[in-house]
C-alpha cells in the first residue's frame, strides 16, 4: 500500500486543556485512521496538569507508526478554546479541516468515509454526522461493512437554524476564506462558525452514521440544568449576531430566538421528568438524527 496516496488532504485541529487522561486516545484516534490525515495540529492551552508531557510522549510513541505530520503547539498561558482553534486554522496547510476535542475520539474509518463525499462533490463545503456518548475506545468499535450504504441528507438553512445538528467533533469543512472563530464569545462560537459557512451559501451534508464519540456526558447530572441555560444564552447571541451580520432578517431572528427559547423550556421539562424518575438526565445522543422529511420538533 502506498501510504502517500491514501492520505486525506485534511488538517485535524485538536485543542487540549486539562485532558491528561484522554488526550492520548484522542490523538491516536486521529492518527490511526484507515485513511490518515495529512497533518494533525495539536495545541495545549496552558494546561496545569501533565497534558503537555502526555502529548509529547504520545507523539514520540506513534510518530513512526503514522504517515500524518504531527504539529505540536504548546502555549504557556490559557486563552480559551476559540483563540487556540484560530491558531490551528492559521497553521493548517491542507484544503480541508476536521475538528476533534481532547476528551473525544473518532471511528477509525471516519476520515475515509467523510472525505469521500468531498471527493465526489467539489461544491460541498461542510459535512457532519452523528455523535454519541460511549464507553470504551476506538479499538472496541466495529468496522463498517464494505457494502454499507451511508445514508445522507443535504442540509438546508432551516435544518441548521432550527436544530443543533452540527457538532464540532463531527465536522469536516473546506477551509474557508476570511472566517475565524469569534473569540469574544465564551461559548457557542463554534456553532456560529458553522452557521456562517452554511448561510454564506456553502453546501452542507449530514451523514447518518455515528462516527464521533465521547466517553463523558456533555454535562454532569448536577450541572446539566445550569448548562442548558448557558447554551441557550450562547444560541440567543448567535442568532442576534446572524441578524447583525446580515445573514437573516430581524423578524426571522426574533422568531428563531423565540423558537429556541421554547426548545429550552422543553429540554428543562425533559430534564426534570428524567430526574424525578431517577434516570440519567443526559441524552443518549449529542445531535439527534436529521429526518429525511424536515420537522421542527
Structural commentary:
With 297 residues, the chain is α/β, with parallel strands linked by helices. It folds into two domains: 8-214, Spore Coat Polysaccharide Biosynthesis Protein SpsA, Chain A; 224-276. Helix content is 36%, strand content 21%. It has eight helices and nine strands. Strands 1, 2, 3, 4, 5, 6, 7, 8 and 9 form a nine-stranded mixed beta sheet that branches. Helix 1 runs parallel beside helix 2, helix 6 runs parallel beside helix 7 (224-244) and helix 7 packs antiparallel against helix 8. The longest helix is centred in the last third of the chain and has 27 residues, at 250-276. It is globular, with a radius of gyration of 19 Å. The termini are far apart. The model is unreliable at 1-5, 219-225 and 290-297 (pLDDT under 50).
Amino acid at each position: 500500500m502506498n501510504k502517500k496516496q491514501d492520505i486525506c488532504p485534511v488538517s485535524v485541529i485538536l485543542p487540549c486543556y486539562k485532558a491528561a487522561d484522554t488526550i492520548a486516545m484522542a490523538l491516536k484516534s486521529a492518527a490511526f485512521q484507515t485513511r490518515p490525515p495529512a497533518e494533525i495540529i495539536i495545541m495545549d492551552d496552558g494546561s496545569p496538569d501533565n497534558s503537555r508531557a502526555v502529548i509529547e510522549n504520545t507523539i514520540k510513541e506513534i510518530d513512526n507508526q503514522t504517515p500524518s505530520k504531527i504539529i505540536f503547539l504548546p502555549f504557556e498561558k490559557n486563552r480559551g478554546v476559540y483563540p487556540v482553534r484560530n491558531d490551528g486554522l492559521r497553521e493548517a496547510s491542507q484544503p480541508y479541516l476536521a475538528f476533534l476535542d481532547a476528551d473525544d475520539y473518532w471511528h477509525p474509518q471516519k476520515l475515509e468515509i467523510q472525505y469521500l463525499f468531498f471527493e465526489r462533490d467539489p461544491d460541498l463545503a461542510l459535512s457532519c454526522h452523528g455523535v454519541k456518548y460511549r464507553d470504551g475506545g476506538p479499538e472496541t468499535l466495529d468496522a463498517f461493512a464494505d457494502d454499507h450504504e451511508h445514508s445522507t441528507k443535504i442540509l438546508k438553512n432551516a435544518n441548521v437554524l432550527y436544530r443543533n445538528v452540527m457538532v464540532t467533533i463531527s465536522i469536516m469543512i473546506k477551509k474557508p476564506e476570511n472566517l475565524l472563530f469569534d473569540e469574544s464569545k465564551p461559548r457557542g462560537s463554534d456553532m456560529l462558525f458553522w452557521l456562517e459557512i452554511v448561510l454564506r451559501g456553502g453546501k452542507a451534508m449530514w451523514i447518518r452514521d455515528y462516527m464521533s464519540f465521547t466517553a463523558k456526558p456533555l454535562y454532569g447530572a448536577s450541572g446539566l440544568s445550569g448548562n442548558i441555560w448557558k447554551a441557550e444564552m450562547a444560541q440567543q447571541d448567535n442568532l442576534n449576531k446572524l441578524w447583525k451580520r446580515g445573514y437573516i432578517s430581524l423578524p426571522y431572528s426574533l422568531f428563531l430566538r423565540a423558537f429556541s427559547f421554547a426548545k429550552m423550556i422543553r429540554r428543562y421539562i425533559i430534564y426534570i421528568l428524567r430526574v424525578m424518575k431517577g434516570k440519567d438526565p443526559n441524552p443518549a445522543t449529542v445531535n439527534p438524527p436529521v429526518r429525511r422529511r424536515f420537522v421542527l420538533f
